[in-house]
Write a structure and sequence with these properties.
By secondary structure, the chain is α/β, with parallel strands linked by helices. Helices cover 32% and strands 16% of the residues.
């Protein structure tokens, strides 16, 4: 009578779930702050931000009040991704008001036209930005999302990013907006008035500036290049 060979033992072999958990724990955490204002968030910029960042970070999205994101410039190329994203549990933003910046290694603000309305005046985001600045943690702001940085003023009214070099939407890009005359803030003017060095390239050009722990991108076309630099900054801190 032939004896059957013993069944292979899998004791000690890591399961797929354990491997996934280990990978998740090994990734740094990144907070994505998005606008909840009616002017919304650029669909393309958010898509590229989330897709690239998810490969390098554990992500948490936060908005003022935890309100859902209103995407703008949705088209045939990004509509399917946006629809799929909305079905995921992680698509429900956390409340910015109850977000502890100390829990995160990086901060990302995609191109958000609505940021000029809500994030640029957010005291809650200001505290997070102050923490990141004090700890020299990587910050990345893109396009209209750069306006969100304007909220970060110190007690003496000085700007946290005074003396930094940065970019954002140029006046030539902003003037094309139908509501240009009523914009609540123009980043170029605010940055220069607050002691920062602002520069921009041609309209719609890919243009980023890296200064210390701050990465800024001029417009939504600069999203991928800005994210690559954010990932580089985080990897160099390990």
């Amino acid at each position: 009578m032939r004896r059957q060979p013993p069944a292979p033992s899998f004791a000690g072999a890591p399961s797929a779930a354990c491997a996934a958990m280990s990978e998740r724990l090994s990734k740094p955490t990144c907070l994505i702050v998005a606008s909840a204002a009616a002017a919304g968030v650029s669909a393309d910029s958010f898509l590229h931000s989330f897709t690239l960042a998810s490969a390098a970070f554990n992500l948490q999205v936060a908005t003022p009040g935890g309100k859902p994101i209103d995407f703008v410039d949705v088209n045939e190329a990004n509509m399917r991704w946006i629809q799929d994203f909305r079905m995921k549990s992680y698509a429900n933003p956390a409340k910015l008001e109850s977000t502890d910046g100390a829990r995160y290694h990086a901060l990302l603000i995609p191109d958000c036209p609505g940021a000029m309305t809500d994030l640029a005046n957010s005291g809650y985001l200001a505290r997070i930005l102050q923490h990141f600045s004090c700890e020299n943690k990587p910050i990345c702001a893109i396009g209209h999302g750069v306006a969100a940085l304007c909220c970060a003023t110190n007690e003496d009214k000085s700007w946290v990013f005074e003396g930094y070099s940065l970019t954002g939407p140029s006046v030539y890009e902003l003037i094309r907006l139908p509501n240009f005359a009523s914009l609540p803030i123009i980043v170029e003017d605010f940055a220069k008035d607050s002691g920062a060095n602002f520069s921009a390239s041609k309209p719609d050009a890919v243009h980023i500036i890296l200064d210390r722990h701050l990465v800024t991108g001029q417009n939504h076309n600069s999203t991928v290049a800005a994210l690559q630099n954010l990932i580089f900054l985080c990897s160099s801190r390990k």
